[in-house]
Design a protein that fits this description.
The chain is mostly helical. It folds into three domains: 399 residues, Up-down Bundle (Na+/H+ antiporter like fold); 67 residues; 45 residues. The chain is built from 23 helices and no strands. InterPro entries: Cation/H_exchanger_CPA1, Cation/H_exchanger_CPA1_bac, Cation/H_exchanger_TM. It is a multi-pass membrane protein.
Length: 523
């Protein structure tokens, strides 16, 4: 228990320091785990594959799915399918061929097991960097969806190749049938769970209870799908997309709590999972202490290079060839600049799912320790090389999407004005119809609030796309109101310490002030 507590506390502190320094928390956690693994006296942390798949994967997938746009995923279904299915199969074949060629005596089956382990991506590190750098939304959407959907493909291929490596037999039709079943059944289980949960969250009156139920959804969807031998990842994805698409049905308090809850859970789970990746180095090396280090390094380099090459060889033709062959596709979805597929190529990091699959290989499989080492070194290589290098690559490709931010601001301002005017008209209609007696000063205050919200949205928009150098009126209002709120807090705290108000009164007032300041931070 003490070891687990130290792991969680240490990983969280590293993540906090990375956030403070503006670095990528997942990459920082991996590097810290690597360094700590060689400190004398540090215990070995063995990654339990079952624990990793049930503890880390469902909540991380669900949090991404809830925040994802179903409409964007549907609009990008073709590239997502090519990456999450076609690229997984292609990577399995390329890595398997490379491993069999570079490692003398490695059976074909074991080589393809390694390929299946390394085929699915884990875009947590890359996406965290992409969002911070402001990369185009389509790139981020494709990376997130690929990393979620291709887990199902990768795990299906892994089970099939592992069965062959352990002496079983299978055919292409068997594999295709199993993939179709696991995928469709996984989506069906996720939707079957999400439908009643959506109705339940509308019935529950307590926000805390509602969010307690929502916390159970990813684990319930994953476990239910796996009990039917379906894809737990796709079940979690389907449930998260459906509930995220209908998030407006929840109460405002539940939405605020849910967003904060999943941010907290994601922060801790990402930090711990990536720290565990770094901590695996010493146990993995110990299992191969009698093997020639030069041969191990050569094999690891070839496998890593094959994995990168397979991604580049697949992505560029998959991006441009369909458009060359289809005029309709070309008209509907023009070819992106070469920088877009280049960024997607570089962002193909691997993570905890690949490592969990590697550790799930039974001890009686031939070359199991070597497969584990090659998988670990490839995962580590993608995180350190691609993860650390991604900011520099993105800057070199000049992919920062300022235009998207401006389009979002413009759309928000237009929608904000329409919504505010409609809401104000409704209140004024009630006041003038005689249905309700509304004091004049209340109507004036509501009009001022509506004008403030519209002005705040439109002030983000400038004809030249630049921000205004002089402070706009609404910005001055926010700045001065924050100063007032800070002073009000200090007065309330002083009054509480003097015994003039109770602690409960202080907490209630502080909560109201916090909500107002949070609204100011957004507007």
């Amino acid at each position: 228990m003490a070891e687990i507590l130290l792991l969680v506390v240490g990983a969280t502190l590293v993540s906090a320091a990375a956030h403070r320094a503006g670095a990528s928390p997942p990459i920082a956690a991996v590097v810290a785990g690597l360094l700590v693994s060689f400190v004398p006296g540090v215990p070995d942390y063995h990654l339990d594959p079952d624990l990793a798949l049930i503890v880390f994967v469902p909540p991380l997938v669900y949090s991404d799915a809830v925040e994802s746009s179903y409409l964007n995923l549907r609009a990008n279904a073709r590239p997502i399918g090519l990456l999450s299915v076609g690229l997984v199969l292609f990577t399995t074949a390329v890595v398997g061929l490379a491993a069999h060629a570079v490692v003398p005596g490695m059976p074909w089956a074991a080589a393809f097991v390694l390929g299946a382990i390394l085929a699915p991506t884990d875009a947590v590190a890359a996406v965290s960097i992409a969002r911070r750098l402001g990369l185009p939304r389509r790139i981020v959407t494709i990376l997130v969806a690929e990393s979620i959907v291709n887990d199902a493909t990768g795990m299906t291929v892994f089970r099939l190749t592992l069965a062959v490596a352990l002496g079983g037999t299978t055919t292409f039709l068997d594999g295709a049938a199993e993939f179709a079943y696991t995928s469709l059944a996984g989506v069906a289980v996720g939707l079957a769970l999400a439908l009643p949960v959506r109705r339940l969250r509308g019935w529950l009156a307590d926000a805390v209870t509602e969010n307690a139920v929502m916390l159970l959804v990813p684990f319930g969807a994953y476990a239910a799908a796996e009990s039917f031998h379906a894809s737990g990842v796709l079940a979690v994805l389907a449930a998260g997309l459906y509930l995220g698409h209908h998030f407006a049905g929840a109460s405002h308090e539940a939405r605020l709590q849910e967003k904060a809850t999943w941010r907290l859970a994601t922060c801790v789970l990402e930090a711990v999972s990536f720290a565990l990746i770094g901590l695996q180095l010493r146990p993995v090396l110990r299992a191969l202490h009698t093997t020639d280090p030069a041969a191990l390094g050569r094999a690891a380099a070839v496998v890593f290079a094959a994995m990168l090459l397979a991604r580049a060889v697949w992505i560029f033709p998959a991006t441009y060839l369909p458009r060359r062959l289809s005029a309709r596709l070309r008209a509907r979805d023009p070819a992106p600049p070469w920088q877009h597929p280049a960024a997607i190529c570089w962002a193909g990091t691997r993570g905890v799912v690949s490592l969990a699959a590697a550790f799930a290989v039974p001890p009686d499989m031939p070359d199991r320790d070597l497969v584990l080492f090659l998988a670990f070194s490839a995962v580590l290589g993608t995180l350190l090389v691609q993860g650390l290098g991604f900011p520099a690559v993105a800057r070199r490709l000049r992919l920062r999407d300022e235009g998207q931010a401006r389009e979002d601001d413009l759309a928000e301002a237009m929608a904000q004005e329409v919504a505010v005017r409609a809401a104000l008209a409704r209140v004024e209609a009630r006041a003038t119809s005689g249905q309700e007696e509304v004091p004049g000063h209340v109507l004036d205050r509501l009009r001022d609030l509506a004008e403030h919200r519209c002005s705040t949205a439109w002030e983000r928009i400038r004809a030249d796309g630049a921000r205004v150098r002089a402070e706009p009126p609404t910005a001055a209002y926010r700045r001065l109101r924050r100063e007032m709120l800070a002073h009000e807090r200090s007065v309330f705290v002083r009054l509480c310490r003097e015994g003039r108000i109770h602690d409960e009164v202080l907490r209630r007032v502080m909560h109201e002030l916090d909500l107002e300041e949070a609204a100011l931070a957004r507007t």
